[in-house]
Amino acid sequence: MYAVIKTGGKQYRVAVGDKLKVETLSAEVGSDVQLDQILMVADGEAVSTGTPILDQAKVSATVVAHGRHDKVRIFKMRRRKHYRKQQGHRQNYTEIEITGISA
């Protein structure tokens, strides 16, 4: 059984036991969160899709950790103009573990 969820403007295919890094959620480490924007649930041959979301489906997850991704370096340069600019960015994330899917 798996589901397609939407959180933080991105879509993820999840199953029970999966760990994934999503955009920052305002929840404490160790707490349970309910993800309610479920786009699709598949259980063997039975597939349920929403228009655009399924109302009765829920995915429960546990917050494992908060952290920051690796640094992404941004380098801009204009040749022959003596222009160079360097920047870096680290995006915050919340790591969650999927504990249950209910359709």
Kindly describe this structure.
It is a single chain. The protein is mainly beta and 103 residues long. The chain has one domain. It is 0% helix and 69% strand. It contains no helices and 10 strands. It has strands at 2-7, 10-15, 19-22, 32-35, 38-43, 46-54, 58-68, 72-78, 83-89, 92-102. The strands form 3 sheets. A 4-stranded antiparallel sheet has the order 2-1-5-6, with no helix packed on it. Strands 3-10-7-4 form a 4-stranded antiparallel sheet, with no helix packed on it. The protein is elongated, with a radius of gyration of 19 Å. The chain starts with a strand and ends with a strand. The model has no long low-confidence stretch (mean pLDDT 95). One of its GO terms (molecular function) is structural constituent of ribosome. One of its GO terms (cellular component) is cytoplasm. Keywords: Ribonucleoprotein, Ribosomal protein, RNA-binding, rRNA-binding. This is Large ribosomal subunit protein bL21. This protein binds to 23S rRNA in the presence of protein L20.
